[in-house]
């Protein structure tokens, strides 16, 4: 048997005298006999009289391992069983998914010979891939019972002050989403007070819930069948959102009382990221909503179901910048019998990182004026774009109601019609023409069997050999097409590029700056001179073309402050060339189709129409571009008679509203 530590065998002083009844050899014989008997007795009991009590180290280390694994089979416990302790730890860790701690024995306090000990455990949780770990110490009381050490069970061994009716969970804590702001710092997209209206299924169930959903949907103006199905599919305790309304929404004023009477209907105050009004630059700004399953998967662990993300527009394109990064909080949660949260407290927190505001060039004054201008255009899709000439900043980009929230203003792809004659004029200038160079303006012109003619109301007194300035001012198609053998398609493409057309633009979506495809077909080439054939542009494109002329150099549009600028074209616009074009565009206002804009101070303009469809006669897109001061404007109407009646009114209305704001 192993020997224990020596504790000492002399209990009194040695005097050298004999005071007892045994002396000499008789005394030595008695002591030997006594020791021999004790040894035999000890051996018979299977231990040694020199053994010391076992050390508590093994039991303490077993406890540390069990707190990591949840298996308490090898831990001698006092106050509970290994099975119960294991079940508690399993339940406590369930809300942490695969996250588990690393627990180690850092210190053991035990006085020699004492039946009490204290184990100090060090616990580390790698809560996230970044940031500090969650660490803490806990103390386990240990008691020597019948020669073995037992650990006194305490739920606080699992986490600081954890109670027997609590479990652990991780809550992601997103920072407040950063704003989209205008150049002055004014908030455009920001959190605003709203009312979330829906059905609370704890107050209505079964067929009643479906009936309530239909009644509520009808009052809110949403699809009753679809919403009733959504309510039916939700859990028994769910609140099923139907619609989010602003405080000023007319639905609240009109149907608020009726909504309150729908059984199970509930209106919950909330904060939501919104623009200044429901339609304000909506196709550009986008919206914020719950992450889709695809977005969650693509985020590689950054997003979870229920997280808020940008769903389209700028909010989507710059979502990572705006949302920031979430912090984490480990919480102790107390739940009721039905699983509802009764109480929770925070045990550890990792701070979130704030998102960064996004500054855009939209001018609220100009955007509001543009939207007011198009607000009543419900018959056909319409759009208006305004640029600041000196900087290329997009000041306004609006669409009418019939555009159904599309990206028509910045990314539409339609034939620009005669507004493209600005590029055709530049191509002629590069072949030696000036504003005074005469071109043959005939009633019609045939190219490879295709007959081209002027618009039906073209003035008869402007036919014949006329200056290019006059041809542009009154928009003579045949005068420009007459140059198809002298000016190649490549010449037209280069001229268009010099005016800012043709590049890919990285906006919240793929912005469209126009296209002039190469072609060997003579008819298609002839049609390109008047902005038809396969030539395409967006309202943004034609605003850029005019702004380049006004500035005297190729303009690059900008929507997001600080975004990389596009490279200059192979042949940038020359100031002298631009001077010729400005002279022609002034003539449009002074004597041609743009005279209607002159009272508003417009200096440069050009109308345009482009036939499309299969009707006879075909429908026409209508255009008008106009420049005043430091602003270039393009207005588009999907269907109209001509630029003067179909699009110019938008520019007039916009400028009047803009001047008043």
From TrEMBL:
It catalyses: a beta-lactam + H2O = a substituted beta-amino acid. It is an enzyme of class 3 (hydrolase). Residues 8-22 have a biased composition (Polar residues). This is Beta-lactamase. Its EC number is 3.5.2.6. Residues 383-626 form the Penicillin-binding protein transpeptidase domain. Residues 56-165 form the NTF2-like N-terminal transpeptidase domain. PANTHER family: PENICILLIN-BINDING PROTEIN 4B, PEPTIDOGLYCAN D,D-TRANSPEPTIDASE. It is found in: Membrane. Keywords: Antibiotic resistance, Hydrolase, Membrane, Signal. Residues 175-342 form the Penicillin-binding protein dimerisation domain. Residues 1-25 are annotated as: Disordered. InterPro entries: Beta-lactam/transpept (IPR050515), Beta-lactam/transpept-like (IPR012338), Beta-lactam_class-D_AS (IPR002137), MecA_N (IPR007887), PBP_dimer (IPR005311), PBP_dimer_sf (IPR036138), PCN-bd_Tpept (IPR001460), TAT_signal (IPR006311). Belongs to the class-D beta-lactamase family. Belongs to the transpeptidase family. It holds the Pfam family PBP_dimer.
